[in-house]
Write a structure and sequence with these properties.
Elements (H helix, E strand, L loop, with lengths): L18 E11 L12 E7 L2 E5 L10 E10 L6 E7 L7 E8 L10 E6 L12 E10 L1 H16 L5 H18 L20 E2 L3 E11 L12 E7 L2 E4 L10 E10 L6 E8 L7 E9 L8 E7 L6 E10 L4 E4 L8 H10 L13 E11 L5 E3 L4 E3 L2 E7 L2 E4 L10 E10 L5 E8 L7 E9 L7 E8 L6 E14 L1 H8 L16 H29 L4 H17 L4 H18 L9 H23 L8 H27 L4 H20 L2 H18 L8 H8 L3 H7 L20
Antiparallel strand pairs: 1-4, 1-8, 2-3, 2-5, 5-6, 7-8, 9-18, 10-13, 10-17, 11-12, 11-14, 14-15, 16-17, 18-24, 19-24, 19-28, 20-21, 22-23, 22-25, 25-26, 27-28
Helix pairs in contact: 5-8, 5-9, 7-10
Length: about 750
């Protein structure tokens, strides 16, 4: 890296978020070719402190790409270098590494835009010329936060000379002035927040972008039959979504909805690409388009018909920009629920009287990440080979992903941070993962816990034993969390019958012998239940047990003679009530599923072996056309097995909230069938189905029963969400008071 500007070695000690780094990714020059055709499909990643903060769009088939993309990054201190990594995009395969460089931010002059040329290097081949990257960089202190901090300090110095009333009045004036005039200050749901929280609480994003993919028109034919199998990819910054595949059509109907977080006040650009799915080979590119969010007005739904560039046809979208959800990070002293007025505001927001106000806002979640103890040592440093880690914590709820700061060289870190989220689905699972920061490579996994929101006990500080990546067994260390959940039960019930929120594009499934075997065994267990039931009925016909057969015969005559349609949901209702009675009376015969747990552990061991093998053998050597077929079979087995397990777990009261909801629904259905003739029910159902598209042309199709079952955990998920018991020898009282580092 060339030395840039004058050195600022004496940077002032900074509060979090004190510096703003504006980067314009200009272009690349003479990049290394990584594809067979002598070209590359380059994209760029920016990392600070081991965490990815930006990813550029992909420029296809170009060794001198021009990006002209801008990003704004908040940093705690310029001592952390900016790492730039360039990759060649390979669809469906592992992306090829082109080269990397780093920029020493302390070499930049404050408040001055600087053009930088960085030469790319590969540590394994230091002599190779891999090209260069051109950037424009501007490093500046966050003036608004600096002014607030300085005013705070001056006020503390004068506090002995002024009265408390004057002090508080001045800060109330400051609060409202900054609330209206500084768009970089946090957003607050209530005006009752304490003034001292101003510089402790920060908002993570400024709004939500809701995109509904309606349809495609007159797309380009990519297959020999004159048709295509199109799907769509969306990207806004590092956020990605992928639509479902619609086979054999040039006018696909998707009706899918995605939500993006909007981080910049001026908006951003959503990159959209359309692809044709090809089994066993690389997918064909159909076309691309973009949505410039800065041109769209907020709180309004826009219907867009976008022509595809580099291709043929159109995409039809609905795009809505809404205000930000209450998602924030703060210190322990800025506790929203301990402030009585703010707690009352939150309780009022989710009271039963506000059932139909914003159905997507189901509840409020507050997570206190306090500390961790006895973590795994990931680093070996120093002359005495001291084993330490640089842990940081990632808190995830669906697509909301927040991070703590890094505590360096410590196996017993204390974070003392509060994270707040809006709950869109009460059946979501809170995931807390601890990583070890590594500057020169990706972060190392230290442990993870998954906590269903419905299993949380409010206000209780608990020590959660960290689990492995598969969430099947313990790893070293515990993490101390205190979680509070406030939600509207009626809204949560209504939301249960709507489609689940999709997650960002995740790693594509790969073929695994253990996973294929696990899914086959799970489906076999579900099928065996039906087979055993058939054997039982047949044994009644064969009079293997005369008393049982006689009772079954009399029950058959009684039911058939008196059968009414309402008895079908009544039977399910009685089955739920019977299982509930067994649980309450202590006669529950449900057993912990050790079979699934053992299979999951075997699968994790195979994943570890695959990771090691992949380092020795290239991914291309393992890719065959038949693999995609096997992965499809593997996924179908998983879907069928999960469907049967979810039905079983509904009646087993695995999630009491869902079982109670099923009781209410079955009771209502039984009463309706008892009092209303079937022809009227079918008539209403048919009229609703035929007129649904006329009443709401862009409504997203859904099945309420399948949406309900999607919230019930399968047996695999039950094992993953099971809370492990803490080792009795590990006690908070034995924790060292003074941690090194």
């Amino acid at each position: 890296t060339n030395s840039v500007g004058t050195s600022n070695a004496d940077f002032p000690s900074a509060d979090p978020g004190m510096y703003q780094l504006d980067i314009t990714l200009r272009r690349g020059q003479h990049l290394a070719a990584r594809d067979r055709g002598g070209t590359s499909d380059p994209y760029v990643k920016f990392k600070i402190g081991g965490k990815e903060v930006f990813r550029s769009k992909t420029i296809h088939k170009n060794l001198n790409p021009v990006w002209e993309e801008k990003t704004c990054i908040l940093i705690e201190h310029p001592r952390e270098p900016l790492y730039i990594k360039v990759f060649d995009y390979d669809f469906g395969l592992q992306d090829d590494f082109i080269g990397s460089a780093f920029l020493d931010l302390t070499s930049l002059e404050l408040n001055r835009q600087t053009d930088v040329t960085l030469s790319l290097k590969d540590p394994h081949y230091p002599d190779h010329d891999l090209g260069s990257i051109l950037l424009s960089v501007l490093l500046a202190p966050r003036e608004e936060q600096r002014e607030v901090t300085m005013l705070m300090r001056k006020s503390w110095k004068r506090s002995s000379k002024v009265t408390f009333s004057m002090w508080s009045s001045g800060f109330f004036i400051l609060f409202f002035f900054l609330q209206w005039n500084c768009d970089t200050l946090p957003y607050f749901q209530s005006q009752s927040l304490r003034l001292s929280d101003l510089h402790r609480k920060s908002q993570l994003w400024r709004g939500i972008v809701s995109v509904t993919l309606i349809e495609g028109r007159e797309l380009k034919a990519m297959d020999a039959n004159g048709l295509s199998d199109p799907y769509v990819k969306f990207r806004l910054g590092h956020q990605k979504y992928k639509s479902k595949i619609v086979p054999k059509t040039l006018n696909p109907q998707w009706r899918e909805q995605f939500d993006f977080h909007l981080y910049e006040e001026r908006g951003g650009i959503i990159d959209i690409t359309v692809w044709d799915k090809d089994a066993g080979k690389r997918d064909d590119f159909i076309g691309r388009c973009q949505v410039d969010l800065s041109t769209l007005s907020k709180e309004q739904t826009h219907k867009l018909e976008l022509p595809l560039e580099e291709g043929e046809g159109f995409l039809v979208l609905l795009v809505t920009l809404t205000a930000s959800a209450a998602v924030s990070i703060s210190d322990l002293s800025a506790n929203s629920l301990e402030d009585q007025k703010e707690r009352e505001e939150i309780l009022k927001r989710y009271s039963p009287l506000r059932i139909f106000h914003n159905l997507k806002d189901v509840g409020f979640l507050q997570v206190k990440v306090i500390r961790a103890e006895a973590l795994m040592a990931a680093d070996v440093t120093g002359k005495d080979s001291l084993c330490k880690s640089d842990p940081f914590c990632v808190v995830e709820l669906n697509n909301d992903r927040l991070l703590t700061h890094t505590v360096y060289k410590n196996l017993n870190p204390e974070w003392n941070k509060i994270f707040t989220f809006n709950i869109k689905d009460i059946h979501s699972v809170l995931e807390v993962t601890v990583y070890d920061e590594d500057r020169d490579r990706s972060a190392d996994f230290l442990g993870k816990v998954a906590i269903p929101l419905l299993s949380i006990q409010n206000g209780e500080q608990k020590a959660y034993v960290l689990k492995n990546k598969q969430l099947t067994g313990p790893t070293k260390g515990v993490i101390y969390l205190e979680i509070d959940v406030i939600f509207n039960a009626v809204k949560a019930s209504i939301r249960t019958l709507m489609p689940k929120e999709q997650k960002y594009i995740e790693e594509e499934n790969r073929l695994s012998k253990q996973l294929l075997l696990r899914n086959f065994i799970r489906m076999k267990r579900c099928v065996m239940v039906l087979i055993n039931a058939a054997y039982y009925v047949n044994s009644c016909f064969d009079w293997d047990s005369p008393p049982r057969s006689l009772a079954a015969f009399l029950l058959f005559l009684f039911v058939v003679w008196n059968f009414e349609l309402y008895m079908i949901p009544l039977v399910f209702l009685l089955l739920l009530a019977w299982n509930y009675f067994l649980i309450v009376s202590g006669k529950d015969n449900r057993q912990h599923d050790t079979v699934v747990e053992d299979m999951l552990e075997d699968e994790e061991e195979e994943d570890d072996r695959d990771d090691k093998d992949s380092e020795k053998k290239g991914f291309m050597n393992k890719l065959y056309a038949i693999q995609e077929v096997c992965v499809s079979v593997q996924n179908v087995l998983d879907e069928v097995a999960s469907f049967g397990e979810r039905i079983k777990n509904t009646f087993n009261w695995t999630v009491p909230f869902l079982s109670w909801l099923a009781i209410v629904a079955l009771s209502v259905f039984t009463i309706i069938l008892y009092f209303i003739p079937l022809r009227y029910i079918v008539l209403v159902w048919g009229i609703n189905k035929f007129t649904k598209k006329l009443r709401s042309p862009y409504a997203i199709d859904n099945n309420e029963l399948l949406d309900f079952l999607s919230r019930v955990p399968s047996d695999v998920q039950v094992v993953q969400y099971h809370e492990l018991k803490q080792d009795p020898s590990h006690s908070p009282s034995k924790r060292k008071k003074n941690n090194p580092g």
